[in-house]
């Protein structure tokens, strides 16, 4: 049973993108500029994006930088994190500042607007109620405000958005169950998936505890995904696919430490929703050059590129594609294949996935 379609009150026509060759003359832009433009216009989806990482930083910094518990880079204004625990604490601080429905609508609208600037036609946005104290007692109102913002963004920018409700690994079992109870009773059209995130290193292996909740979600027709293989090793990834039976794994990069697991991911075509800049900024890997995304890709694992928390890491989807292409020597065929994985593994409606794949084929010059 499939998840219910995301409600789009103002349907957008499919936008076919056609690559137009640039004239090779003295008036042409530099090759690097043309490559960047090609990457920006490449049709793609983003499937690992947290609502919590989209709270405007100016509001956080103006509130009280010292009270936020981190330092802000003086040049970029981006916060600097020592580790995942400090990062998660910052999310609690910044999201607590969002107390008005108009703020929620603005955050949602800006997600769609930014997505369009990177060539993203659909985004799966994860939200974890534990980070939003003002809204924990009014999840219906919270999702309604998000829906308004996303709907306006869809109308203006043609970007569809689905929501994934995420549980926290460190919350009480009763609280997790209560969130799933709410989701299955309310069934907001835009919330199409159940997820779980949080500090795996602090919580330990939690697969068996969450397995019944994920089973309930699947039985109700919801999609599933889970964070794993970030602060945990490959055992977290194995638990996600063997105990929670998720469709996608968010991060998952530490699977590379277990060759048998890598082979399993490739054989079963389980997508990994990879966030290179996030992994570098939070110390999961030492540098982009040391990131295992290329090793996983060449081993046959389906990978997509995502931002995780774009405003907190100063990145965009197009930037992730461009930096990985430069670092790993990816050509357009590789970038196109990664964009295809992002669309195919997204939780967009079947019709929307077909539209985006058609746009991608046209852009890459492929026959339908």
CATH topology: TIM Barrel
Number of helices: 16
Shape: globular
Structural class: alpha/beta
Please give the CATH class: Alpha Beta
The largest sheet, given as strand count, sense and whether it forms a barrel, is: 8 strands, parallel
Euclidean distance between termini CA atoms? 28 Å
What Rg, in angstroms, do the CA atoms define?
A: 20 Å
Largest sheet, order of strands side by side? 1-4-5-6-7-8-9-10
Strand content: 5-15%
Task: Flag low-confidence runs.
Answer: 1-28
Number of strands: 10
Looking at CATH, the homologous superfamily is: Metal-dependent hydrolases
Task: Give a description of the structure.
This protein is an alpha/beta fold. The protein has a single domain, classed as Metal-dependent hydrolases (TIM Barrel). The chain is built from 16 helices and 10 strands. An 8-stranded parallel β-sheet has the order 1-4-5-6-7-8-9-10, with helices on both faces. Strands 2-3 form a two-stranded antiparallel sheet. Helix 6 links the parallel strand 5 and strand 6. Helix 1 crosses helix 14 and helix 15 runs antiparallel to helix 16. It is globular, with a radius of gyration of 20 Å.
Give a summary of the structure in a few sentences.
The chain is an alpha/beta fold. It has 16 helices and 10 strands. The chain has a single domain (35-364), classed as Metal-dependent hydrolases (TIM Barrel), CATH 3.20.20.140.
Protein topology:
Layout: H1 31-41, E1 44-50, H2 57-63, E2 71-72, E3 79-80, H3 84-96, H4 101-117, E4 120-127, H5 139-157, E5 160-168, H6 173-186, E6 191-197, H7 200-203, H8 207-219, E7 223-228, H9 234-242, E8 248-251, H10 259-267, E9 272-274, H11 276-281, H12 293-298, E10 303-305, H13 310-313, H14 317-328, H15 332-344, H16 350-364
Parallel strand pairs: 1-4, 4-5, 5-6, 6-7, 7-8, 8-9, 9-10
Antiparallel strand pairs: 2-3
Helix pairs in contact: 1-14, 4-5, 6-8, 15-16
